[in-house]
Design brief:
The protein is of the alpha+beta class. The protein folds into two domains: 2-244, Phosphatase 2c, domain 1, CATH 3.60.40.10; 320-387, no CATH class. The protein has helices at residues 41-59, 63-83, 135-141, 147-152, 189-192, 197-206, 210-223, 249-253, 295-320, 362-370, 377-387; strands at 2-11, 21-26, 29-36, 91-92, 94-100, 107-113, 117-122, 125-128, 172-176, 183-187, 230-239, 323-328, 331-336, 348-356, 372-374. Strands 2, 3, 4, 5, 6 and 9 form a six-stranded antiparallel sheet that branches. A five-stranded antiparallel sheet has the order 1-11-10-7-8. The protein has a four-stranded antiparallel sheet with strand order 14-13-12-15. The protein is elongated, with a radius of gyration of 33 Å. Bound molecules: manganese (II) ion.
Amino acid sequence: MTTLRWGAVTDVGRIRTNNEDQLLVADPLFAVADGMGGHAAGEVASQVAVEALRAAFDRDHSADGLAEAVRIANRAVWDRAQEKSEYRGMGTTLTAVALVGDGDGETLAVVNVGDSRTYLLRDGELDQLTDDHGLVAELVRSGQLSPEEAEQHPQKNVLTRVLGLDEDVEVDCFQVVPYKGDRLLLASDGLTNEVTDAQMASVLRRLADPQEAAAELVRMAKDNGGSDNVTIVLVDVVDDDDRSGAASAALADDPRPTQTARREAPVRDTETAPAPRPQPAPERSPQNRPRRFTFRVVVFVAVLALLVAGAVVSIGWYARGGYYVGLKGSEVAIYKGRPGGALWFKPTLAERTGVKKDDVQAAFVDDIKAGKPEPSLGAARRYVKNVKSPEPAPTPTPGTPSPGTPSPTPTSTP
Ligand code: MN
């Protein structure tokens, strides 16, 4: 069973007068939303979204339930925006993480719409799990802009996807298997625009206590400018079997771990107590990496191998399943296989026909050059018979078409 521990801070920053960000800490659900819109509508949008998310997720504690909860939150913001003219056009980002499933099937479901972000710190490495739905971020992803150019881009704040601007919204969702020591960082752009990923990683490695780490990140964002609202939710994965160790990566790296002000999450479902995770590692160290090779991974690899084998068989069947009429030098020939082959399945010569390329009617030459597929050897032979010019000699001698042949030679027709 997985237990979580968390810290959370939201701050108006140094420039703005109101805080349009919203955070949600409702174990096992955590979220950050960054609202936008005039007349305080941004605050309304982020608050409506977070409340709707929480209520909807309560009805279905699953990964699908979380994605659906985001769609319901979108609809809630949209509906509210229709009520008042000041609310028209308001919207909000939303990223959320929830622990779903039970026993060995427990995962962290992650969802995102907009440019708030969820990061994962694992084994000291910080990875951005979510994609930003911004104009500039999309240009970077498609290779039209370098990350350095993006930093300075005037349209850095233009979002391509947010909650509340349409009746429906596309939601990014995926799942992460939680390991003891993982830290999930949810943050609004007020943090990520002011503090580099390297700086964030350094704080997350250094400060074990999630509340302290969150507060330190907010302090850095404000020191670096604080031009926007800053909101952070930091969620640590704590294994309840070894809670006294509280062995997060940060704790292991911190020579003076402070235990004060740590909020322990209540253990969920103690009655059902599912089987412990199969990874045996009792404590964290770099050598523990192989523990990720769990039963689940084995099953995944096995399924993948089966899929690949199936694909190879299908391609082989496709590649070797037919015939085609092509050229062998200047002679028409029938091949088994596909023109050009498929992957490593090359066509093989099935039979020579004795028909010279020059004897083929002009209309068929291009097809044969490219390879004319036929379903069977018989069909290929019939095709070869049909394409032969009625006059076997390349020199056109008028008046010699064999009797009964309807003279299809196109040369004389206008
Ligand atoms: Mn913001």
